Amino acid sequence: MERIEDCISFVIGKAAQQIARRAREKLAVHGVTPIQYAILKVLGQQDGQSGAELGARLVMDSATMTGVIDRLQASGLLERQADADDRRIQRLFVTEQGRLLQKPMDAAMDQLNDEVTRNLGEQGEVFWHALRRLGENRG
Amino acid sequence: MERIEDCISFVIGKAAQQIARRAREKLAVHGVTPIQYAILKVLGQQDGQSGAELGARLVMDSATMTGVIDRLQASGLLERQADADDRRIQRLFVTEQGRLLQKPMDAAMDQLNDEVTRNLGEQGEVFWHALRRLGENRG
DNA sequence: GACTAATGACTCGTATACAAGATATATGGA
DNA sequence: TCCATATATCTTGTATACGAGTCATTAGTC
Q: Is the pTM for the entire model greater than 0.85?
């Protein structure tokens, strides 16, 4: 490998960085970050999941999860509620205020998806397939 | 977009995260991180570049650059040297110790490239093309 | 030469990401 | 019941990443 631009770790990192930047811009008007959006989305579809369940779905470790949940709670978009049966577990619930953001946030991310997909054209399908494969750590 | 797994920002972020994890593991034995490797590689091919020049090549802002350079210097892999003509500029030089790491680090990253490319098979070409396009912020 | 704009490096605050470890709680078996 | 193990969460320390702003220096213009 002669150039750093031929290093897969570098190139995919920078590509993800550019996409993340655009996602941040689109979500900033709603006061949330991309990962906060992800948590609100998953939780909005099934309330009451624990941090561990969310972490498994979103591939986040518990240390990161604690911090993100702290900030979402501080923003009033989500609440912790101790589980009655297992007191180790904090179940998470989207607040009214959090639910109001769901549709506009989804619209913003749909828009980003469209922009990227349109630009990639026919290569889009192959690209998605490869990305999922890598994300699942099979590549 | 129904599922968070259909969100391009989320999926490319997680794919990059997995690749970065594997790159970190391979580089950890040499005591460097992926971004530190990138700086040492670019600088090793042309010594004496400034932080601004490196930042343009590696798409890093100056705040991040300062921190990474600090740690590389603390590790003894790189040195700062004030420019004689323009005293705003700090020129960067790889140390002897830094040069010794070049080949083994490159070998580790070549290995990662091979693993990923082999796994993607025929889709590799399309995937690389799409990644570069996105990294250049044209998609 | 003096003034203004631009530039390079740095600092500070915030947000992921992760390793390692601490704490509280739950579970299984002796 | 007691104990070892496992689990969920949280804490701490380190490393990117970026917005915003500071400071010194340089470049451009009059």
A: yes
Contact between residue A72 and residue A40 where contact means Cβ atoms under 8 Å apart: yes
Is the separation of the CB atoms in B24 and B34 below 8 Å?
A: yes
* Distance, CA of A109 to CA of A27 (rounded, Å): 8
Q: Which pair of structure tokens corresponds to residue A81?
A: 């509620």
**Rounded CA gap, B84 and B59, in Å?**
26
Residue of chain B whose alpha carbon sits nearest to that of A35: B10
Interface test with A, best of B2, B10, B39, B120 (most A CBs within 10 A): B10
pLDDT, tens digit (0-9, with 9 covering 90-100), for B53-94: 999 999 999 999 999 999 999 999 999 999 999 999 999 999
Residue B62, chain A, CB below 8 Å: the answer is no
Q: Which of A5-19, A122-136, B19-33, B86-100 comes out lowest in average pLDDT?
A: A122-136
In the predicted model, what is the mean pLDDT of chain B? Answer: 95
B57 CB-near residues (< 8 Å, 6+ apart): A4, B42, B49
* Distances, alpha carbon A115 to alpha carbons A24, A110, A112, B121, in Å: 15, 9, 5, 27
Q: Tell me the residue type at A44.
A: G
Residue B75, C-beta contacts closer than 8 angstroms, at least 6 positions apart: B31, B32
Interface check A44 vs B, CB under 8 A: no
Output the distance from B87 CA to D30 C1' rounded to whole Å: 26
A138 CA from C17 C1′ (Å): 21
Beta-strand pair B90-94/B78-82: antiparallel
